[in-house]
């Protein structure tokens, strides 16, 4: 499918400078929030424990053999409002021998899960949204071109789950509840029937300050068809975009569009690779290693990024997550000019110590850092962020932060490029001094 056809009628990249943000409040169904993210893997116990330890997200619930589920092993990690679900298949013949014991995740498929893990490695299968009515959300999506993955399934008269295709082998899962009065001590109430609580360790209270899922980014071959498809069936609007040329260096190797719901609390950026740059596009590298489109990164909001980073870095080489190399000192020298009015000298020093990047847009400031890919392949990674500014009041006078405050880090492409160049010049200067010293000797 070429870029010139396929939905180009309702979507065209215009670039950051020409993009005008409007919120038409065009959602096709009522979206409440991100609900959970499901990873498909071959061994859920190990994957869940690694993420729990590395991110400070306690294991809070399970559905496995011990709870009477012979179909799949599922473990839930939770911190603040974020829930990660890790699911792996049990023996298909064992589960076939217990036809009366159903899977707790009603859309689970042995074949699809096995194929997913073999093709993609560790990755995200489902982005789940809590919606007002999953049955209505599914019907509206299908009516507007979404490809059905699972029709609505009704669970114990309590919850409804349905799925549509998002991109690659990733699905958008809708979850809704019949009652608004959920029991937070019982995962079969606040999550799904069939899940039972797990005792958290009091010896190692794992909470490093991560609170909320901010955005979930997908890599696709071509933005045009992918954005048109999702926009059409969700009704989400374009919240931001930038193209390779915007960042000035042509080094980013990507074009990007962010879709958002009415409240701008569910942010779904998508990237496509750009070709002909000096270095190969990181998006193209992803697409090759992932064998197609999929989730590139999950951005998690911390309420204290310095604390979260200190805790995560302590565990980087003892089972936790490693981070991308920190920028050179020149980056932090320039940071005083860029964000000195928002961050104190001490905070800038802390950013440098922890390797945190800073960017801003016309509304607020973004502090961000990226892990290295979390699994074997150079595919999915995690971003930890804190957004500063953009505080608003709702109709009842309650304070909240506007979604996407401070942007997504576009400015860091050129800023990092500039600071690396400046840094390399200082190294060259040193080399000249060293070589002249040597020759003098
Ligand atoms: Fe991001």
TrEMBL record:
Cofactor: Fe cation
Domain VOC: 33-197, 212-372
GO molecular function: 4-hydroxyphenylpyruvate dioxygenase activity; metal ion binding
InterPro entries: 4OHPhenylPyrv_dOase, 4OHPhenylPyrv_dOase_C, 4OHPhenylPyrv_dOase_N, Glyas_Bleomycin-R_OHBP_Dase, VOC_core
Residues reported in the UniProt entry to bind Fe cation: 215, 297, 383
Keyword list, A-Z: Cytoplasm, Dioxygenase, Iron, Metal-binding, Oxidoreductase, Phenylalanine catabolism, Repeat, Tyrosine catabolism
GO cellular component terms, A-Z: cytoplasm
Main location: cytoplasm
Cofactor note: Binds 1 Fe cation per subunit.
GO biological process, one term: L-phenylalanine catabolic process
Compartments where found: Cytoplasm
Matches recorded under SUPFAM superfamilies: Glyoxalase/Bleomycin resistance protein/Dihydroxybiphenyl dioxygenase
Gene3D superfamilies noted in UniProt: 2,3-Dihydroxybiphenyl 1,2-Dioxygenase, domain 1
Domain of life (superkingdom): Eukaryota
Pathway in which this enzyme or protein is active: Cofactor biosynthesis; prenylquinone biosynthesis; Amino-acid degradation; L-phenylalanine degradation; acetoacetate and fumarate from L-phenylalanine: step 3/6
Family the entry assigns: Belongs to the 4HPPD family.
PANTHER family to which the protein is assigned, alphabetical: 4-HYDROXYPHENYLPYRUVATE DIOXYGENASE
Protein name: 4-hydroxyphenylpyruvate dioxygenase
Organism: Trapa incisa
């Amino acid at each position: 499918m070429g870029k010139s056809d396929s939905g180009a009628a309702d979507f065209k990249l215009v670039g950051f400078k020409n993009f005008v943000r409007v919120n038409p409040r065009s959602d096709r169904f009522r979206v409440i929030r991100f609900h959970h993210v499901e990873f498909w893997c071959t061994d859920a116990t190990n994957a869940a424990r690694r993420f729990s330890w590395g991110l400070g997200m306690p294991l809070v619930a399970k559905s496995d053999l011990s709870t009477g589920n012979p179909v799949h092993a599922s473990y839930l990690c939770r911190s603040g409002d974020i829930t990660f679900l890790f699911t792996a298949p049990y023996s298909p013949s064992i589960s076939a021998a217990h036809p009366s014991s159903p899977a707790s995740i009603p859309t689970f498929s042995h074949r699809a899960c096995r194929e997913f893990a073999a093709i993609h490695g560790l990755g995200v299968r489902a982005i789940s949204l809590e919606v007002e009515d999953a049955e209505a959300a599914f019907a509206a999506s299908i009516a507007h071109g979404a490809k059905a993955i699972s029709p609505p399934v009704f669970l114990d008269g309590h919850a409804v789950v349905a799925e549509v295709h998002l991109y690659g082998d990733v699905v958008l899962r809708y979850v809704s509840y019949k009652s608004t009065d959920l029991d937070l001590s019982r995962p079969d109430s606040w999550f799904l029937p069939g899940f039972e609580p797990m005792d958290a360790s009091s010896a190692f209270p794992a909470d490093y300050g991560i609170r909320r899922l901010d955005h979930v980014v997908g890599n696709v071959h071509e933005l045009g068809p992918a954005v048109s498809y999702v926009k059409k069936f969700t009704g989400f609007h374009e919240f931001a975009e930038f193209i390779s040329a915007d960042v000035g260096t042509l080094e980013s190797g990507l074009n990007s569009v962010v879709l958002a719901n009415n409240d701008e609390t569910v942010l779904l950026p998508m990237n496509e690779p750009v070709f002909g740059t000096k270095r190969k596009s990181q998006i193209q590298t992803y697409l090759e290693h992932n064998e197609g489109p999929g989730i590139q990164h999950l951005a998690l909001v911390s309420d204290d990024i310095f604390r979260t980073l200190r805790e995560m870095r302590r565990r980087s080489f003892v089972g936790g997550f490693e981070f991308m190399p920190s920028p050179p000192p020149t980056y932090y020298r320039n940071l005083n000019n860029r964000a000195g009015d928002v961050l104190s000298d001490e905070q800038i020093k802390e950013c440098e110590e922890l390797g945190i990047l800073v960017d801003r847009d016309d509304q607020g400031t973004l502090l961000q850092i990226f892990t290295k890919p979390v699994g074997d392949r150079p595919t999915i990674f995690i971003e930890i962020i804190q957004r500063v500014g953009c505080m608003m009041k709702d109709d009842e006078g309650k304070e909240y932060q506007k979604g996407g405050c401070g942007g997504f880090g576009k400015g860091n492409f050129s800023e990092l490029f500039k600071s690396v160049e400046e840094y390399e010049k200082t190294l060259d200067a040193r080399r000249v001094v060293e070589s002249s010293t040597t020759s003098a000797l």
